[in-house]
Amino acid sequence: MFSSKISGLGSYVPENVVTNDDLAKLMDTNDAWIQERTGIKERRHIKKGDGNSTSIMGVKAAIIALERAQLEPKDIELIVFATLSPDMYFPGGGVQVQDLMGMPTVPALDVRNQCSGFIYALSVADQFVKTGMYRHVLVIGSENHSGGLDFTDRGRGVSVIFGDGAGAAVVSRNEGGKGGILSTHLHSEGKHKDELALQGPSTNYWVPQIIKENPQENIPYYPYMNGQFVFKHAVVRFSEVINEGLQANKLSVDDIDMLIPHQANLRIAQFIQHKFKLPDDKVFNNIQKYGNTTAASIPIALTEAWEEGKIKPGDLVVLAAFGSGFTWGSAIIEWV
To answer: Which of 69, 190, 221, 315 has the fewest Cβ atoms surrounding its Cβ within 10 A?
Structure first.
């Protein structure tokens, strides 16, 4: 068995900034209401004509990650692409990245675990590297939420939360042998699948059926979220999976140098921070600027924390996510 490490990080967000005041012009909401409930001040949305899509944003983040890893596209042996908002229903975004980046015919694998997508994708990459099958794996989390949100009063509870963007990481063989990705931990609980979901279009509810039924009051092709239910489960699962990762590596909360939670809601992150008694300099949040970018949120935050010098070699970095499915997971990393 080999060990793996993150050798390069990159992120990209659209230039178009959408503030809470901008959303207040479209629906019955306001800046104070949004900040109080979510902590979000603004987010980025793809703007028509800016040339962005889920796959293209992923490529932009990946180019940066590859440069920092001192690698070229031809060096990548596997692409793992995490998103809930692919450019097409099929094929997935991974093959588009392969084509756009001019890579050889490397395998491309798509992960559909929504808010936990990056942790799941990182886990896949970690295992492929540790078993020796691949030396360099490109992991991308990218989302275009804005094209599928309901910007009316009916959808305000969900639509104010989400933003667009992408983050990427290169997972490589850790030639030094010490540190790197120590472990990943994954879980699911499908009985709560309907509490945070997008039911259609799908094979259960195709577009022609939607048009025929014309459900004006409950349109199923917009996301639904039972906010309080999700919050209540998230704070429990976050705590459990962080502790699981620490215990698996015989570590304690005191060993954490940086916790980067999925940027779902600032109140969830603050609850976890308070529960673990972590000071502000050991928790990184950027949801205030970008909203919830789902599979992109952890790699964007991880990249920013690293760029700001808040993650250094030898630091213990903990990543944790919870979301639709329900699915959740954590990764314990000794930074190298």
So the answer is: 190
Among 64, 69, 82, which residue's Cα sits nearest to residue 7? 69
274 part of the active site: no
Report the DSSP pairing between strands 17-19 and 42-44.
antiparallel
Let me know if 145 is a catalytic residue.
no
Paired residues of 181 in beta bridges? 333
1-336 belongs to which homologous superfamily?
Thiolase/Chalcone synthase (3.40.47.10)
DSSP string, 166-225: EEEEEEEE-TT-SSEEEEEEEEE-GGGGGGEE---SBTTB-HHHHHHH--SSS-TTS-EE
The predicted-structure confidence for 300-334, as pLDDT tens digits, reads as follows 999 999 999 999 999 999 999 999 999 999 999 99
The answer to whether 329 touches 119, Cβ cutoff 8 Å, is: yes
Tokens representing residue 148 in the block: 């599928």
* Beta carbons within 8 Å of 132's beta carbon, 6+ residues apart: 1, 2
Low-confidence ranges of the chain (pLDDT < 70): 207-220
- Exactly one of 20, 52, 174, 292 is catalytic; which is it? 292
Is 292 an annotated catalytic residue? yes
Sheet holding 136-143, edge to edge: 4-12, 165-173, 136-143, 78-82, 108-111
Q: Which of 52, 113, 115, 286 is catalytic?
A: 115
Element holding 124 (H helix, E strand): helix 117-130
pTM of the model: 0.95
Catalytic hit among 45, 136, 145, 262: 262
Domain boundaries, the chain: 1-336
In the chain, the amino acid numbered 36 is: E
Q: Where are the alpha helices (DSSP H) in 43-116?
A: 54-68, 93-100
pLDDT for residue 279: 97
* 272: CB partners within 8 A, 6+ apart: 235, 238, 239, 242, 259, 261, 283, 320
Residue 50 per-residue DSSP state:
S
